[in-house]
């Protein structure tokens, strides 16, 4: 699949093709006597979707936390577009890295649109006084933010639900909303922590298409997932963490066939073709989907 980040469709945070957006070197994170992540190197370039897989407790989320300023690595360095990242998560977001969480963290009693507007705060310049006085600058900035938030809701297939309360959305749509909120900070790199957890096969497939569409806008993606079909369909490169260390890194075919990965994580060689039962489930669900269903416009 090709990526053209020079088109007018490129996201505001998009980077030139081939640029290294994330450069993590020797990242180690210790909690007392436990080394959760040990000396991990990982690069992500523009136009790439990179997967991070491994057994439960392998250190994947801890590594994400080291990339996003939630944890300060005990050792090692993380650079975004060549700059060492500041050790504060809001500064990391402002620098251009956005993330979603393993457990959905939406503002349940706010509307779908308001949740996305919250995600834009790192990109709005209007300060407290401007907000209190509600001058022309404030109204202009607010209108621009709303317009961008609606564009993002359109992109993820939730525009028609902009006024719904987040808590009333079905689970799969809450996950999409989290992605829209993360995109609202106009990142150059998006980190997704188990984006398909709890989804049915149809929702998982729609998420796959959404991630491809995000990549096609020039935003690099690093994704943690336990769904191996999702990972191997989606990713240009996959890194495998086991007990905090990077065991293998390579393209999907290399990782799927690696004896060490099979022994430590997959258990048995990965069978790429979906089972007949899964195909039937997706086809039945798609047959029931009306033309107005959210996410329809992202289908490719
Ligand atoms: N804040 C913390 N304090 C102490 N130990 C922690 C902390 N966070 C994570 N750990 C430990 O670090 C190890 C790695 O955990 P982590 O959540 O990063 O794994 P993971 O690969 O994301 O697992 P999963 O796939 O189950 O989400 C585990 O042993 C965990 O108990």
From TrEMBL:
Q: Which GO terms describe its cellular component?
A: plasma membrane
Task: Give GO terms: molecular function aspect only.
Answer: ATP binding; ATP hydrolysis activity; L-isoleucine transmembrane transporter activity; L-phenylalanine transmembrane transporter activity; L-valine transmembrane transporter activity
Entries under Gene3D superfamilies matching the protein: P-loop containing nucleotide triphosphate hydrolases
**Name by which UniProt lists this protein:** ABC transporter ATP-binding protein
Superkingdom field: Bacteria
Q: Which PANTHER family match?
A: AMINO ACID ABC TRANSPORTER ATP-BINDING PROTEIN, CONSERVED COMPONENT OF ABC TRANSPORTER FOR NATURAL AMINO ACIDS-RELATED
Where in the numbering of this chain does the ABC transporter domain appear? Answer: 22-268
List, alphabetically, the SMART domains matched.
AAA (SM00382)
* Span list, region Disordered: 277-300
Identify the keywords attached in UniProt to this record, alphabetized.
Answer: ATP-binding, Nucleotide-binding, Transport
Q: Name one Pfam family in it.
A: ABC_tran
From the broadest rank down, the organism's phylogenetic lineage runs: Bacteria, Bacillati, Actinomycetota, Actinomycetes, Kitasatosporales
- Tell me one GO biological process term: L-alanine transport
């Amino acid at each position: 699949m090709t990526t053209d980040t020079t088109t007018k469709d490129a996201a505001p945070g998009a980077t030139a093709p081939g640029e290294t957006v994330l450069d993590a070197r020797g990242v180690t994170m210790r909690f007392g006597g436990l080394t959760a992540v040990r000396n991990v190197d990982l690069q992500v370039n523009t136009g790439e979707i990179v997967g991070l897989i491994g057994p439960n407790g392998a250190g994947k989320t801890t590594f994400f936390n080291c990339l996003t300023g939630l944890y300060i690595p005990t050792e090692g360095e993380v650079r975004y577009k060549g700059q060492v990242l500041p050790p504060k998560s809001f500064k990391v977001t402002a620098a251009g890295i956005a993330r979603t969480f393993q457990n959905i963290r939406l503002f349940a009693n706010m509307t779908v649109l308001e949740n996305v507007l919250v995600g834009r705060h790192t990109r709005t310049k209007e300060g407290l006084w401007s907000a209190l006085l509600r001058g022309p600058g404030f109204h202009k900035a607010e209108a621009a933010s709303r317009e961008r938030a609606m564009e993002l809701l359109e992109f993820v297939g939730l525009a028609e639900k902009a006024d719904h309360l987040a808590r009333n959305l079905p689970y799969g749509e809450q996950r999409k909303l989290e992605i829209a909120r993360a995109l609202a900070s106009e990142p150059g790199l998006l980190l997704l922590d188990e984006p398909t957890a709890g989804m049915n096969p149809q929702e998982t497939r729609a998420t796959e298409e959404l991630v491809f569409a995000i990549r096609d806008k020039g935003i690099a993606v690093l994704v943690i997932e336990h769904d191996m079909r999702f990972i191997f369909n989606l990713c240009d490169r996959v890194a495998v963490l086991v007990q905090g260390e990077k065991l293998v890194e390579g393209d999907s075919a290399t990782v799927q066939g690696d004896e060490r990965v099979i022994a430590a994580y997959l258990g048995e060689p990965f069978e790429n073709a979906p089972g007949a039962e899964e195909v039937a489930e997706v086809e039945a669900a798609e047959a029931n989907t009306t033309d107005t269903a959210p996410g329809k416009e992202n289908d490719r």
